[in-house]
Amino acid sequence: MEKVVVESFTMDHTKVDAPFVRKCGEICTPNKDIITKFDLRFVQPNETAIPTAALHGLEHLLAGFFREELSDIVDISPMGCRTGFYLIVVGSRAEEDVLTALLNSLKKVLSSKEIPAANPVQCGNYKDLSLFGAKEYAKELVDLLQKKYNLK
Amino acid sequence: MEKVVVESFTMDHTKVDAPFVRKCGEICTPNKDIITKFDLRFVQPNETAIPTAALHGLEHLLAGFFREELSDIVDISPMGCRTGFYLIVVGSRAEEDVLTALLNSLKKVLSSKEIPAANPVQCGNYKDLSLFGAKEYAKELVDLLQKKYNLK
Ligand SMILES: [Zn+2]
Ligand SMILES: [Zn+2]
Asked: Tell me, which fold does domain B7-148 have in CATH?
């Protein structure tokens, strides 16, 4: 059997400077469609990790907001290391477009009054959700991304 | 703008009986390929949540093992609620095939001597990894899945 390579294990996490948006993979389907994977890194690897309630809150909020900003989203999921999210879309997409969508989505987080689906019917762990935490991380992230990419 | 529906918010989490493998979504690409999403639910929603180090450890272990068992995997990511993982594959796939792949992967977890990529270069939070925790959850899960699906 061919040796299995996990893409995220090939990036040197000591060399990156978070936050950032990085195209980290492209898959070609049998009929020649492209599936693109982006690394949305929110905090610096091995220095910070987003607490579960803030991360889970961001997952609920971004699930809807990102789909309003970007079409053909397959998935947006938190990383097990809690330093960011993976975004998967159908089609090729530029990092700048994903960055814009991320910034717009985070700004919507900042003006959110509640976390959607924060109840035991729609969520698997509804007590572990923090709107406060999600907003504080979003605020920091908007500032840092705008500085880094010279958008302010 | 069209109302955005997040698929996972439409399942009634109070009605399910974990653990289970559930096909939870199919997306058709422009050139008519299918992308299938599976809900691999490890623990009962709103009753248990897998601690971060065990969940993160399972993420590292399953990333490689699942790709040895199943072709055309796009992603396997932990849920923000920490009750399971989402698996995304290119192509149509039956729940039974994913269940078999999951069981084989979990059995490989049980015989693992270390967590792959458990270092600051390859991981974003390498101190938050528990091989012990990953194995204990895997052991319980193998038992419960085999009982539930009459595989023993
Ligand atoms: Zn949730
Ligand atoms: Zn990791």
From this structure: Gyrase A; domain 2 (3.30.1360)
The domain over range A17-148 is classified in CATH as 1.10.1040.10: no
Helix (H, G, I), strand (E, B) or coil at B16: coil
In the structure encoding, which two tokens stand for residue B130, read together?
């528990």
CA of A107 to the centre of ligand 1 (A): 21
- Residue-level pLDDT at B152: 73
Predicted confidence band at B10 (pLDDT cuts at 50, 70, 90)? confident
pTM of the model: 0.95
Chain mean position to CA A115: 16
Quote the CA–CA distance of A88 and A74 in Å, as a whole number.
Answer: 5
From edge to edge, which strands make up the β-sheet containing A20-28? A20-28, A34-41, A84-90, A73-78
Query: How far, in Å, from the CA of B125 to the mean position of ligand 1?
Result: 22
Query: Residue A55 pLDDT more than 60?
Result: yes
